[in-house]
Amino acid sequence: MVRERPEAAFHEFVAARSASLFRTALLMVGDHQLAQDLLQESLVKTYVAWPRLRDVANVEAYARRVIVTTSISWRRRRSFHERPVDPLPELVVDDLADSIVGRLDLWPVVQALPPKQRAAVVLRYCEDLSEAQTAELMGCSVGAVKKNASVGLAKLRDRMGGQLTMPTSGESAVTS
């Protein structure tokens, strides 16, 4: 007898948590379309693993870990770094707040970080996860998270020229 998959529970999970998971994917890859692809691939992997998951309460953590590990493996592929030759011009809007402009300036610098440093910075300071939660998602020790986050923040500070300050809980990493 073939075991049926609890599709209703998976659909409920996707409906409830896909926006949060998409945000994590977007922060990991920095591109809207790539984030959609990353989320889709991660949800497929989560769906395949659904019957093996013992505790349904930890499904979101499992899905986030899949997002992180998949994005890191994507970065290792040679084809990931290929970009179109002629980029589309950016639309300039004069009424954007200074904080949004600062964040837009920060993204290319965050994307230039190595994958593990980017993951540590994004999970710690954008997703506001603890060091232990970040270590669990990245599959490494708390010390490795501290080192990757510290080195990543130092690189961001160097490249941003003093615009980046150490964020506290609930604050943005960019100052105007």
Task: Report on the architecture of this protein.
With 176 residues, the protein is an all-alpha fold. The chain has two domains: 7-81, RNA polymerase sigma factor, region 2, helix turn helix motif (Rna Polymerase Sigma Factor, Chain: A), CATH 1.10.1740.10; 98-160, Winged helix-like DNA-binding domain superfamily/Winged helix DNA-binding domain (Arc Repressor Mutant, subunit A, Orthogonal Bundle). Helix content is 64%, strand content 0%. The termini are far apart. The model is unreliable at 168-176 (pLDDT under 50).
Question: What keywords describe this structure?
Answer:
single chain, 176 residues, mainly alpha, Arc Repressor Mutant, subunit A, 7 helices, 64% helix
Topology:
Layout: H1 7-29, H2 32-49, H3 59-76, H4 98-111, H5 115-126, H6 131-138, H7 142-160
Short description:
With 176 residues, this protein is mostly helical. The chain has seven helices and no strands.
